[in-house]
């Protein structure tokens, strides 16, 4: 079954027929942005996408700072209720910061130390071990943990700096996520953003 393991909606707390749309301030290369948007699409949440190009500094414009003084993305605006803390930082995975660190360093053309490469590899092994005993990142059903990690790992895979296929259980999970989310716009949201990031990184490496 294509979407096996996806947690059914709790209709007591979520109404997929809500009349209003939620604004999401979004940048396509940002894994947290894509993860949140992918989750909204999967849940059927009505939304308006508002692009904030962080490479051009648009997150520092006064009109965005009025919405989110911390100038972070993604940010959502649900009829005046502002939420700007991505769930990615709450996952608590071992050495999770190195997933973000690697992308930041690559993005700005820096180099990654051997020590950081080892820690990043250890983090991948940690995820691989989790998935050796679990269908999904946090158990037998898909959760926000899976949405968070697919955003990060799609960028890593597209940049070509790590061979995810060497982590067998992690790679199987990665392929399963792509299949499970295909009908919710995975190619247009997650893959397109990851490809844009990967193209930029490869150009930096080859320049």
Automatic annotation (TrEMBL):
Gene Ontology terms for molecular function: glutathione transferase activity
GO biological process: one example: glutathione metabolic process
Listed SUPFAM superfamilies: GST C-terminal domain-like, Thioredoxin-like
One Pfam family recorded for the sequence: GST_C
Family annotation (CDD domains): GST_N_Delta_Epsilon
Record domain GST N-terminal: where: 20-101
Name of this protein: Glutathione S-transferase D7-like
Native source organism of the sequence: Diabrotica virgifera virgifera (western corn rootworm)
Gene: LOC114332805
């Amino acid at each position: 079954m294509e979407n096996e393991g996806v947690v059914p909606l709790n209709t007591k707390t979520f109404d997929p027929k809500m009349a209003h749309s939620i604004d999401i301030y979004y940048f396509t290369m940002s894994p947290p942005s894509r993860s949140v948007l992918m989750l909204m699409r999967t849940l059927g949440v009505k939304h308006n996408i508002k692009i904030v190009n962080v490479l051009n500094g648009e997150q520092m414009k006064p009109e965005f700072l009025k919405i989110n003084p911390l100038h972070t993305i993604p940010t959502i605006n649900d009829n005046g209720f502002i939420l700007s803390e991505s769930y990615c930082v709450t996952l608590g995975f071992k050495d999770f910061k190195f997933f973000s660190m690697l992308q930041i360093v690559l993005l700005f053309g820096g180099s990654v130390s051997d020590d950081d490469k080892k820690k990043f590899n250890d983090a991948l092994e940690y995820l691989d071990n989790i998935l050796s005993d679990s269908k999904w990142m946090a158990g037998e059903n898909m959760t926000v943990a899976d949405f968070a990690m697919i955003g990060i790992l799609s960028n890593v895979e597209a940049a070509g700096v790590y061979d995810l296929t060497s982590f067998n259980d992690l790679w199987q999970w990665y392929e399963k996520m792509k299949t499970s989310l295909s009908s919710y716009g995975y190619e247009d949201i997650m893959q397109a953003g990851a490809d844009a990031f990967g193209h930029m990184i490869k150009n930096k490496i080859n320049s």
